[in-house]
Amino acid sequence: MRQTRYDAIDRRSALQGALAAGVALPFLGGRAGAQSADSIRIWTFMSAEGQSPREKVFKALIDDFQAKSKVKVVVESQPFQELETKFVAAVAQKRAPDLVWLRDTFLSLVVDRGGLADLNTELSPEFRQQALPDMFNVFTQKSVFDGKRVSLPIWPSPAQIIFYRKDALREIGLEAPPLGWTAFVDVAGKLTKGTRIGLGLPTSDNSVSALVNVMSGFGPSIFDPATGRIDLTGAEAVEAAKTVRDLVARGAVSKTLLNAMGDDIQDQFAAGRFAMAQAFAPRFQQYQKIAAGYDPKELAVSAWPSFGSRPPAVLLGPYWTVGLASTSQNKAAAVAFLESMFSPAASMKWAKEASLIPDRRSVMSDPWFNTSDAAVTAAFFKLLSGDGAFVFPQRVPDITKLFNVLNTSLQEIIGTDEKVEPILARAKSTLGW
Amino acid sequence: MTVVPIKLAGASARSIEQAARASRRVGTALVGPAVAVIVAVHIVPAFIGFYSSLRRIFFFADEGFVGLSNFSALFSDPITWQAIGRSLAFTFGALALAVPLALLAALAVRELGPRGRLLLTILLVPWAMSPIVVALLWKWILLPSPGGLFASILAVFGIPPVNLLSDPAWAMPTVIAVAVWRTFAFAAIILSAGLGQIPKDLYRAASVDGLSVVERFTKITLPLLAPSILIVLSMLTISYFNEVQVIIGLTSGGPIRSTTTLGYQLYITGFVELDQGRGNAIAVVMFLINLLLIVGYIQLLGGRKGGEA
Amino acid sequence: MKVIARAALLVASSLAAIIVLGPLLWALSTSLKSDNHIFAVPPRWIPDEPTLVHFRRLLAEGVHWSFLNSTIYALGAVAAAVLVGAVAGYALVRYPVFGKRALLVLFMGVMAIPGYALLLPTQIAFVKLGLFDTRLALPILYAAHVMPFAVWMTRAHFAGVPRELEQAALVDGYSRLEAVWKVILPGARPALLSAAAFGFLYSWNDYITATTMLESPDLRTLPVALIFFQGFHGRDWGALMAGVVVATLPPVVLFLVFRRYLIGGFAEGSVKG
């Protein structure tokens, strides 16, 4: 039998012959995604018909592009956590879309399996000269693998960040949460009152790890520069775990929320259950919209606290990037659409209508960013430009397992009385690190 | 029980033999498509699964033959043994809840007469639903917010909202209860049919003999219902052992892996973590356990009926 | 005493009915509430201002196409499974077949092995065959999963039909095919319907096969679309419960219409073995 290599699809393989005997081959037609020359296909988590602010802007950009170029843009939305997997499978089957949304943390896996075109040779000279230098370097650099630019980061965002209610903070005489962990733990404890809990942490999500976010308070050194691993039994990890324990001891993190996905935290934040919560920054408007237990105007954002005298921590990612499939039959049109999402006008639109940080830094000089509507975006921009900002390494090994394993550890740290060292040691051995 | 075709009267021995061969050809040809489908969709993947379990395949990239190392890694990982334990807890927990409930339901259905049929129909409605939809529905009902249905029922008794799905002690019983909610009435069909087979005279004779209700149940109903209970046990064991959709929908295996059964571990390893070599190793283990269960039950059931046709 | 027992029985049965139907009514109720009423305390069973906004949102997201897909896949699978299965069931009773005993064990055994344990290798095979993410992937798999059941069901039925009936038809000058068509099939209706109804429920309700074998949005089935719905923008419980209602109605209606055959089929099957 042939080996099941993803790139070795050979219709004459013995295996296929055996299978074809049973499952009639004449059925082979009817494959989805037949494509005409004047259309491009996009895989993203957004829906072309969606009603979220981001989706509306996306739709508007598509409409603009279609009107100008006469190229039809077909959006095929996918579950966000499966985009990379499905893209790799689709490349192997030669039915990949032209453009695909990929998380920065999964780029190396996709790059290693081929299928992404080098944007350095595809992007227009104007875009390379004007747009690229105008974007955030920490993001754009991460998409360059051995000189190949495999994707463009979109909506530079601090990803996981602290949302808080100003009204709750006011009750204890504060404007914003403290930016050092010792003071933060104390404040979070004080914010716990009645049925309200100080801090909501997602404890069960495939692409979010609160433990890593707490650790980010030690800065970029938490990732080993050579291996991309985190030292899970090192002093910093232990300190982070003990900090979570402190939060639990003060009632600031609930033992009854051991299995909470980001969505659960969001649901409960809306109901007024938390004073502060870890949240995905681009959901700011969503949180405002569903606010039931508090006044939406009281919602604000903060960086993560740091340890010692380090600057406030902003771990950028996982965030979205957009790649071009090397198999695309319509590269020119696909690249044209890709570039159109990064024009200054488009950046302005993402910022104004969806509260996203503009990809093009130059548009921040627009007077609109001084208005109160833009306060949150300006705050995000400041965090991004600060000293504490850093990203996940280009290659984090076992990225498909990392978040699951660390979330189980986080659940154990919150929900059990076991010492943190053996909990972390177990995570380390599960990952084989 | 082979059957000689019909138009044979008066034919010579040789032509009978010819006709029998022709008939056998027709019969085999008629069964052929069904067998082909079974082979293509059940047997061949079983072999591919075994073959893949001997290779290191990660995220669709095949890195070659690794012998039994996927299996040795699997069995030396305490998480695997924990998952096997959770599978047993789920399977037998669900059985322990479902079978008595089904028996009660079946007795009630029989007792209620025509209204019993209505009761059975109502109880079966969840069985017609999709497991993942059921999970979604219960997740909403169990939402630990004051506006949640379950929380508001607790509130009537003065109990504050609890988060069953988030509590390592309660998550497994809750997942079991939801799985049983969907499936127990199916077992009631079979038990109710079994009850219908028990001759009424026996009960009449028993009450003449002065047996109490409990005695009648333990001395007549249970022994005579044993075959039906065995069928129910076999069907439910296999179905619960492989249940994964309710877990995916309700708890994602948590908290602290308390609902991570072997089936869920397969889902996570193979389809989420994309460690497809190891995922296939888990699939092989599950396949073998299923096979073992099936062979065991065929033995038990076959022994009872004195062999298949 | 007897009256009390009877009353207790009725109360217990009613309670059971409430536990079973309550959650479904709650889903319906939620699906008709506007966003700001969904989390109301205390919860209300009858929505204050019923709204169809969540159902409209489902339509806007194209969930009706997923509904259509689910229907087509299920019907296709059922048609194929019942046809192939009934033919095999008939042949296994009326014809000598090579390796009959082994085949019977094969059909029985395969029926018990859930497709789930084979999903990962099936995915690999389907990718190789070019069947992955096509309109045929699910009908083929569902048909294969349901078919052993159809064989089992129809075989049990055909075994119970006296051979004389068929012989009489042949004597009357019918061909074998005509005899089967005119005499045997009408009598087999309950068995066929019960296999078909079960097959439809199985296919319609599957999530795990659909989510691992398809990825194009225009091929998606209803349960997959529904889970996708709790995707990236956070949960929208109103729309989700509207989806639950939409996904639950067809199988429940089908079950209610065919309950006689479904219940009868399983009851008979278990008694006859």
Automatic annotation (TrEMBL), chain C:
<keyword id="KW-0813">Transport</keyword>
<dbReference type="InterPro" id="IPR000515">
    <property type="entry name" value="MetI-like"/>
</dbReference>
<feature type="transmembrane region" description="Helical">
    <location>
        <begin position="72"/>
        <end position="93"/>
    </location>
</feature>
<feature type="domain" description="ABC transmembrane type-1">
    <location>
        <begin position="67"/>
        <end position="258"/>
    </location>
</feature>
<keyword id="KW-1133">Transmembrane helix</keyword>
<comment type="similarity">
    <text>Belongs to the binding-protein-dependent transport system permease family.</text>
</comment>
<dbReference type="Pfam" id="PF00528">
    <property type="entry name" value="BPD_transp_1"/>
</dbReference>
<feature type="transmembrane region" description="Helical">
    <location>
        <begin position="237"/>
        <end position="258"/>
    </location>
</feature>
<feature type="transmembrane region" description="Helical">
    <location>
        <begin position="102"/>
        <end position="120"/>
    </location>
</feature>
<keyword id="KW-0812">Transmembrane</keyword>
<feature type="transmembrane region" description="Helical">
    <location>
        <begin position="179"/>
        <end position="204"/>
    </location>
</feature>
<dbReference type="InterPro" id="IPR035906">
    <property type="entry name" value="MetI-like_sf"/>
</dbReference>
<protein>
    <submittedName>
        <fullName>Carbohydrate ABC transporter permease</fullName>
    </submittedName>
</protein>
<keyword id="KW-1003">Cell membrane</keyword>
<keyword id="KW-0472">Membrane</keyword>
<feature type="transmembrane region" description="Helical">
    <location>
        <begin position="140"/>
        <end position="158"/>
    </location>
</feature>
